[in-house]
Amino acid sequence: MSNLRGKRILLGVCGSIAAYKAVDLASKLTQADAEVDVIMTVAAQRFVSALTFQAATGRSVYSDLWTSGASGGLPSHIAHIGLAEAAGLFIIAPATANTLAKLAQGMADDMLTVSALAAACPLLLAPAMDGNMYEHPATQANLQTLQSRGAQLIPPESGRLASGLSGRGRLPETATLLGHCRRVLGLTGELAGKKVVVTAGGTREALDPVRYLSNRSSGKQGYAIAQAAIDAGARVVLISSAQHLPTPVGAQLVPVESAETMCRAALEHVLGAAALVMVAAVVDYRPRQVAQRKIKKTDSALRLELARTDDILLAVKAQRAASSYPNIVVGFAAESDNLLENARGKLRGKGLDLVVANDISAPDAGFAVDSNRVTVLDAHGGSQRIELSSKASIAASLIQRISSLLG
Ligand code: CTP
User: Fold this and answer.
1) Which tens digit of pLDDT belongs to each residue from 228-277?
2) In 187-311, which residue ranges form alpha helices assigned H by DSSP?
3) What is the DSSP-derived secondary structure letter of residue 169?
């Protein structure tokens, strides 16, 4: 469930050892229901065969400008024009120094560069090469020229290169490349230009330097919502206490620990925001005293005195009354009893526009798993039940709902 579904994507592959990684990208894009047309340079075919891409995408692969293969279903019988016209996104991964130089000069001497000149869709460049080749002023100048014309760069990563040397020039992993495709496709989405703040994860309330109180929230639903908002074009601020989850490409991550630090970050970032989606499972009680040194065990029971943490949504409600930001506030209600009644109480009490009621007593939904079953209640008495689905799909429908509320 992503904005890749149904999109026609041109994948240009150049002659670099990283071409093998482009096969995985072609496969993952296809699995995400995109239509992937691969264009290979002659050098790329030295590393990977056209047949490999054809098998991964189930579609023709283009390489020879003069006998360019099937052009059925394209808006022009001339393959490079048809491919360029049909594409919603052109990603070149890996992009070699040679192809970047040709693109910067507007040269068009093979199927890939001709199509790039003809394409009016967004162009994403993922350079991959030796570190010195990447850092070379000629390559950097070419990249700058291309970016000044609107091309978007996926910066190469540092690390071990095929030469055995280390440097900056590695093609990022598929998940990162996919994230950039989603980010760029989102730029014309319904939330383009809007700021959306999402909180995620269970907060951690310190007891001593090594221990804390928390809960079983994984942060997965919050991260899925952040990704869905990026898919729709939003500028996402992800305030997160979750650990070990990859940050969606394009999100501004604000790492926090406690309810107090999350509250401060939320109040700061909702200013100017179109929406706040408060998915975080905020811990309601914190140890009154935080021991400066590790608490040692003794033979007697340990008594903890707990104090209430601040309610972040109530703090946002008070600030919103004065600043009018954020325009829309969405809360979650994690309940094991009286789901809808409790959720409605939270909708009213916390001044929400929507509340997502989440029955956490079911083993297949809610905390830590990849699926969820929710009911979305609105401030006008409406309710929408979403049966067991992936957290990504729940996220997409919630973001759609928020877009329509924002008009
Ligand atoms: N929330 C918050 N600040 C808190 C506690 C919760 O902003 N200190 C937010 C959560 O992020 C969620 C909503 O309030 O969007 C409801 O959270 P939930 O834990 O279900 O309810 P609580 O208000 O904590 O009440 P209870 O735990 O008694 O059900």
Assistant:
1) 999 999 999 999 999 899 999 999 999 999 999 999 999 999 999 999 99
2) 220-231, 259-269
3) E
Q: How many angstroms does the Cα of residue 331 sit away from the middle of ligand 1?
A: 8
Which tokens hold the place of 400? 């759609």
* Centre of ligand 1 from the C-alpha of residue 216, in Å: 14
Cα–Cα distance measured from residue 329 to residue 267, given in angstroms and rounded to the nearest whole number: 12
| Residue 303: strand, helix, or coil | coil
Q: Which residues, 6+ apart, have CB-to-CB distance to 320 below 8 Å?
A: 270, 326, 329, 351
Distance of CA 341 to the CA centre of its chain: 33
Measure the CA–CA gap between 262 and 244, rounded to whole angstroms: 18
Number of Cβ within a 10 Å radius of residue 259: 24
Per-residue model confidence as pLDDT tens digits over 93-122: 999 999 999 999 999 999 999 999 999 999
Residue nearest ligand 1's atom 16 by CA: 333
Going by the DSSP 8-state scheme, the letter that residue 202 receives in this structure is: B
Beta bridge mates, 202: 281
| pTM recorded for the entire structure | 0.95
Identity at 228, one-letter amino acid code? A
DSSP string over 231-285:
HTT-EEEEEE---S-PPPTT-EEEE--SHHHHHHHHHHHTTT-SEEEE--B--SE
List the structure tokens of 70.
Answer: 């099937």
Atom of ligand 1 nearest to the CA of 358: 20
- Which residues approach ligand 1 with their CB closer than 6 A? 259, 278, 280-282, 284, 309, 311-313, 331-334, 346
CA distances from 365 to 64, 221, 280 (A): 51, 11, 16
98: annotated active-site residue: no
